[in-house]
Amino acid sequence: MNFEAVIGLEIHVEMKTKSKMFSSAPVGFSREPNTQVAPLDMAFPGTMPVVNKQAVINAIRVANALHMEIDHTLYFDRKNYFYSDLPKGFQITQQARPIGKNGYLEVEIDGVKKKIGIERIHMEEDTCKQLHFMDYTLLDYNRAGVPLVEIVSLPEMSNGTEAMKYVETIRNIVLYSGTSDGKMEEGSLRCDTNVSIRPIGQKEFGTKVEVKNINSFKSIEAAIDYEIKRQSQLLLSGEKVRQETRRWDEASGKTVLMRVKTDAVDYKYFCEPNITPIHLSDEFVENAIRTCPELYDSKKERYLKAGLALSDVEIILSNIDMASYFEKAMDKVKNPKDLANFLIVEINAYLNKNVLKITDLSLKPETLAEIVLLQEEGGLSHKQCADILFKVLEEPTLSPKDAQKALNIVAQVSDTGAIMGFVTQVLDANPQSIADFKAGKDRALGFLVGQIMKLSKGKVNPAEASRLLKEELLKR
Amino acid sequence: MKTITMDVLKDAANRLLFTMSEEEYQTLYDEFQILTKQMGNIGKIEGLEDFAPMTFPFDCTTDFLREDEAKEPLPREEVLENAGNVQDNEIKLPKVVL
Q: How confident is the model at residue A342 (pLDDT cuts 50, 70, 90)?
C-alpha cells in the first residue's frame, strides 16, 4: 500500500524588540539569569500588561509578507495553564482574533513552485527558560514575556524537504524584514511539526503525531522523513499509529516518544480583561508595511536582474550581513557580478582562514568596490586585484592604489602585438595541445590560455589572449 | 452551539478537578437548559448578523501602544527574594515536566 504524508507546522518566532511584549523589561539573549525581569513578568500583584508597539509593527510586517488579511483591531486572550514556566498561571495570546489570517507562501523545490497555505499568525508572550536536571528544575525568567509570533500553516506539506523549505522561507522573511534574528540554534525560531500519513486517495487524515525539539533546518527534513517512514512501517505491519508527542533525537537520528496524548488539553481561553481592544489605524498599518526593510525575495530578484548567478545570489543572501555589505558596494562598481566574485571567493576565504565574521572585517565595502573598479576600469586582472585586496586586508591603512604601488602591479597588457608574442611562444612550445584542440578537445584551449597567463605573469588580458589564441589556432 | 448534557458537565467537572453531588449536577443541568433556551431566543432576533461579535465584554477601545523602550529591570535580589529555593541565581523547583 502506498501512503502520502500530511504535514502542518507551528513556528514560534521571537520578535526583535528592545523591551518585552507587555512589560518594559529589556530583552537580551545570554544575559545573567533573572536580570531582565520586570514585576509584570513575575506576575506581581497590581501589575498591568501594556502592548509593545514595535512587536505589533513586526507582526504586521510578517503578516504582510505572508500575504495575510490583517485585523485592524487587536484582541488578546488568556490561555490558562498551571506550570512553572509562566508565573501568572496563563499566557497572554490571541486565540479568537489573530492579527493575521488566510495567508500563504511559496516554496521552490528543483525549480517547481508550491503554494503553502497559512491559517493564522498571532502575537503572544514567551515563557521562562527551564533547565531540567535529574530531580530538579532551574528557572530563568529573562525569556518570560519576550514578544513572539506563532505562525500556523495549513496541513499542506507532504515531505521533509517541503517542510524544511517552508521554514527556511519563514526564516528569510523574519530575518530580512528585521523582525527577528531567526536563529534556530538559539531558540529564537522554534518549530513544532504535526505529521500524519494516509493511503493515497483517502480523504480523511490519519492519526497525527507531534514532533518537537527540532533545532536546525536539516533536522526538520530528517525528523519528518523519519516519522513518515516509522508510521508507514507501523501501518504496513498491521499496527495503529498512536496520537502522541515525540521529540527528535539528533544523536540517534530518530524520533523518541515523549508522551501519549489521551485528550486535547483544555486551556479555558477567555478574553484578557486587562487589555482593552486596540484599534490600529489604516495609516499605522500602512506605515508598518511601507517602512519594512526589503525582503529576501525582492533582493534575490534584484540581484538576478543585475546579472548574478542564482548560486551566487543564494550564497550572498544566506548571510544577511554579507548581503548588507554587498548592498553598500554594489552601486559603486560597473558590474555587481565582479563584486560578488570577490566577496564569495576571496573575502570568504580570508574570513574562514582567520575565523572572522564579515561584520569583523575592517575593509569597508566602498574600498572593496575601489578594488573591483581596478579590474573593471584600471586594466588589472582578477588575480592582480586579489593580491591588492589581500595586501589591503593585511595593512588596512593602505589604499588600494598604495597597495598596487607597493606590490609593483602594473596594468594588464591589452596591446594586441604584445599579447600575440606570448600566444606564439606558447603555441610553439605546445604542439600536442594544438593537435588536441583540432581533435575537438576544448580543454586544450583553457590549458593554452593558462600557459599564456603564466608566461606573462598574469599581465595579459585573458579575454583578449583567448580571442587571439583562437584565431591563431585556426591558422595552424 | 454545544449541547449541554449530564456527561458534558461531569467531564468538565472532572477536568477542573471538582467533585459535585448528583443534586448539584441536576441544578447546574437545569440552569443550563434555561440559559440554552434564552440563547436560542436571542438567536432568533432578525438582523443579528449586522452586529460584530462581542469578543471583549466592555465597550471601550484604545489606540494606545507602548513605545518599545527598555527600562531598568528589577535587581536580581528582588526577583529572587520570594523564591523558596535558589541555585546559581535561578529559582529551583522539584522537576515536573509537562
A: very high
The dihedral region occupied by A125, where left means phi > 0, alpha psi between -120 and 50, and beta the remainder, is beta
Chain A partners of B77 at a C-beta cutoff of 8 Å? none
- pLDDT at B98 exceeding the cut of 90: no
Residue B98: list chain A partners with CB under 8 A. Answer: 83
Inter-chain touch B60–A266, beta carbons under 8 Å: no
pLDDT at position A262, please? 64
Do the domain assignments include residue B36? yes
- In terms of Cα–Cα distance, which of A70, A53, A65, A48 is closest to A15? A53
Q: Which residues of B touch A96 (CB under 8 A)?
A: 55
- Long-range contacts (CB closer than 8 Å, 24 or more residues apart) made by A181-190: A181/A14, A181/A16, A182/A13, A184/A214, A184/A215, A184/A216, A184/A217, A185/A215, A185/A216, A186/A29, A187/A14, A187/A215, A188/A13, A188/A14, A188/A29, A189/A11, A189/A12, A189/A13, A189/A14, A190/A11, A190/A12, A190/A13
- The domain tally of chain B equals 1
Say if B64 falls within a structural domain: no
The interface pTM score, or ipTM, of the predicted complex is 0.81
Residue B95 lies in a domain: no
Domain encompassing residue B40: 6-44
Instruction: Report DSSP letters for A184-202, one per residue.
Output: TTTTSEEEEEEEEEEETT-
| pLDDT value for A263 | 66
Considering only CB atoms, B66 lies closest to which of A36, A51, A84, namely: A51
Q: Is B14 part of a structural domain of the chain?
A: yes
Q: Which residue in chain B is spatially nearest to A245 when comparing CA positions? A: B98
| pLDDT beyond 80 at A5 | yes
CA separation for the pair A466, A334 (Å, rounded)? 23
Give the SS3 label for residue B84: coil
pLDDT in tens, A116-134: 999 999 999 999 999 999 8
Q: Is the CB of B80 less than 8 angstroms away from the CB of A34? A: yes
**Distance from C-alpha of A121 to C-alpha of A98, rounded to nearest angstrom:** 6
Residue of chain A whose Cα is closest to the Cα of B92: A138
Report CB contact under 8 Å: A280, B63: yes
pLDDT digits (tens, 9 = 90+) for A75-113: 999 999 888 898 899 999 999 999 999 999 999 998 899
With beta carbons under 8 A apart, name residues in chain A contacting B73: 25-26, 35-38
Residue B96 host element (H or E): none
List, for residues B17-34, the tens digit of each pLDDT value: 888 999 999 999 999 999
- pLDDT by residue (tens digit) across A269-327? 999 999 999 999 999 999 999 999 999 999 999 999 999 999 999 999 999 999 999 99
The predicted model gives A33-57 an average pLDDT of 96
Catalogue all structural domains in chain A, each as residue range(s) with its CATH number. 3-279 (no CATH), 294-406 (no CATH), 416-475 (1.10.10.410)
B21 close contact with A: CB closer than 8 A: no
